[in-house]
Amino acid sequence: MLAIIRKEINTFFASAVGYLVISIFLILNGLFLWVFKGQFNILDSGFASLTPFFLVAPWILLFLIPAVTMRSIAEERKQGTLELLLTKPIKNWQLALGKYLGSLALICIALLPSLLYVITVYQLGNPVGSLDSGSTIGSYIALLLLGATYTSIGTFASSLTNNQIVSFLIGLFLCFLFYFGFSGLANYQLLGAGDYTVEQIGIQLHYERISQGILDTRDIIYFLSIISIFIFLTSIILSKNTKKTISKLASFATITVVIINLLGSSFYNRFDLTADKRFTLSEATKKLLKEAEVPIAIDILLDGDFPSEFRRLQNETKQIVEEFNSINPKIQYVFTNPLEEEEFRKETLEELQRLGLTPMEVSVQESGKTEIETVVPWAIMNYQKRSVKVALVKNTIGATTEERVNNSIQQLEYVFADALKKLIHPKKHKIAVLKGNGQLPDGKIADFIKTLQEYYFVGAFTLDSVASNPKKTLEDLQKFDLLINAKPTEAFSENEKYVMDQFIMDGGKSLWMVESVAMEIDSLFKPQSKGSAIAFMQDLRLGDALFSYGVRINPVLVNDLYSAPLMLASGEGNNTQFTPHPWYYASLTKSNSNHPIVKNIESVKFEFSNQIDTLKNDVKKTVLLTSSERSKLEGIPAEIKLDNIIGQKPDMESYTEGTHNLAVLLEGNFKSAYKDRVKPFSLSDNKDQSEDTKMVVIADGDVIKNGIRKGRPITLGYDPYLNLQYGNKEFLLNTVNYLLDDSGLTEVRGKEINIAFLNIEKVVATRTLWQVINIVVPLVLLGLFSLFFFWLRKRKYTR
Question: Which of 286, 580, 754, 787 is most enclosed, with most CB atoms within 10 A?
Fold first, then answer.
C-alpha cells in the first residue's frame, strides 16, 4: 500500500498539471483573502482571525480535490494497468485506501503554504499574537476533515469511469451536493422539523461547527463515517462483483453508517478549543435551556451582506444559537432580512419602529471609504403565544467600532438567556415599592416599574399602618422578596425603621436610593428663584441603620468634571433652541469593575449625588459606581447658582480628590440596627443578625427618575435633546436581577469574550507588503519544491 501512495505522489508531481492545479489553488486563495474586496478579505475585515480563509477554502477545494483525484483510478483503468494492479498480492480495500491516502497527502501538501496566513494575521494583530490559536487549530482540523471527505468522494468518482473529465465532473457534483446541496435544501424549509435532519446529512453544518473551534464527537463520527463509506464503495467497485452484490453491500454499509451516527448523536461530547471558552455555556444557561419542553423559535433579523463589524456579530449570534440548539433541539432559529424587499423598504422600517425593533444607521469605514448602512440588530424569541424582543447591539456613548462589537458579543449569551427566562419562567419574586415617606411619585418611576413587571410581581407598599399595627405591617412586608426605597424626602419613624430592619434580618433584599442633601434641579428654574437655590442637609433618620449595615451617606455634593450637560432653552415659540451647558452636578459614572451588575454598561447619570463611605465590618462590600478622577466634594449648606457654573471655566486645580463612591453592593450577614437597643415594639422572633442576604445603597434618588414629555413618561436614562441613552435603566435592572437571581443567570454578564482585532495602522502601512508575501511566497515555495523534486528524480534515474 505504501508503494501505491508513493506512486500517486510521484505521478502527480512528475507532470506540470499537478503544479498548475496547486498554483491555481494558491493564487485564488491569495486573491480572495488579501486583494479582492469583499467579505473574504482579511485585511478589510478588521479582525485578527482566519475565519475568511476557512469560509472560502471549502469552495476552492470543491474544484481542486476532484482535479487531483480524477486520474487516480480512471487513468489506471484507461491505460489497462488497473487489471495489472489487481493481480498483485494486494486486496481491493488496500488498493482503494492507497489511492485515497496518496491523493490526501497531495491535498495536505497544497494546504501547507496557508500556514503563512497564520503568521501574517499573528503579526498584524493588536497586540501582536492576539490570534486565537485554539480556534485556529480547530479550524484546521475541520479543513483537514473536509479535505479528507472530498478526497474520498473524488476517489470514488474516479473508480466509476475511465475518463478523467467525467470523473472530475462526477466528483465535483457529489462534493457540491454533500457540502451545499443538503444545507441549501434545508434552507427552503419544506419539511418543517425534518429540515434540520436534512441539513445534518450534509457536510456544511458539521464543517462550520468544528471550524468555530468546537470539537464535537458527532461531527468527527460523521466525517469518519462518510470517508469510510466512500472508500468502501470504491473497494467494492474494484472488486468486480455483480451489480446485485454491490447494491447489497452498499445498502449494508449505508445502514451501518446511519446506525453509527444515530448512536453518536445519543452519546456525544463537545470540546471548546477557543482561548476564552466562548462556546462553553454557563450552567445556569444550560439548565434554563433544558427546561424548554415545547419548541421555541428564534427569528434573527441579521441575514444579508453586512459591513465587517456586523458580519462578526452575525457569526457570533449564529454560533450562540447553534450552541442552544445542540443542548436542546427544540430551540430552532432562522436568519431573515426584513429589508430584503427594496420596494417595501419604507413601510418595513416604519413597521419595525412601531414594534420597537429600531433599525440602526451605521457609518462604516471600509478600505478608506465611509458608507452608511441600515441594519436591524434584533432577534425575536417565540414561545407558544408569547414573544420577547432581544437587542443584539449594545450602543455605547463615544465607543469605537471595536468596543461596540466587543461589548455586544460579550452580552449575547446573557441577552438570549434572559429572554428565554422571561418566556418559560413564570414570575415568582415579589417587589415592594415603598411609599408614604415622600418617595418619587408613580409617574417619575413609571418606566422602570413597567420594565420590572416583565420579570416580577411589583406592588406599592406603605408603612402607614405601623403606628397602629406594626406586627401586621411587618408580616405583610415579609411576603415580598425585595424592598425598593426610591428617594424618600420625609424622615422615617423608629417603628418604620424597625419594620424595614427586621425585613432585612429575615433575609429580605433591599435597594436604597436615598440622599442626605435636599436639592432639586427644578428649584433653579422657578420664577422666584432667579437661577439660585440652597442645598441643605436632609435628615431621613436612616443614618444609624445604614451605619449598622456598613455604609454612611455623607451630607456633601459631588462636583464632577465628567458630567452630563444641562440643556437650557433660548428664544421663544418656534425659535426656541436648546443648548447644552456644562453641569458638574450631573456625574456620569462608569465602572471598570467586572461585577455583573456594572460590566459593560453605559455611563449612569446622577443628579446632585452624595458620597458613600464604607465602614469596617464582616459584610462584603463591592463599590459598583464612583465619580470620575476629576471630581471634588462640596459641603452644605451651599448656594447653587446657574450663573456661577454656566459660562464660566471651572478651577481645574480644585478637582484633585479622585473618585468618590456613589453606589455600593453589600452582601453577607447584617447586624440589626436595634441590637442591644430598646426596640420600638416587641416581637416574639426578634432577630439581631440577618440571614445571608444582599442590599445595594445608591447615594442619589434621581438615578431612577424618568423624564416626562407631553404628560407621558419617557424611557429611563434617555435624553431627548441629545438623543443619548444613559445606562440608568440597565444598571438598576441588573441590580434588581442580581439581588433576586437564584439561578445564577446574572453571572453570565461577567463572562469574558476576547475579540482579536487587527492593528489598522499597521495594516494600512504594510498592506502591499503582506499582499505580495501571501501571493508570491507560496508560489516561490512551490517552485523550489518542484526543482528539488525533479533533482531527486534525476539523481535517482541517472544512476
Answer: 286
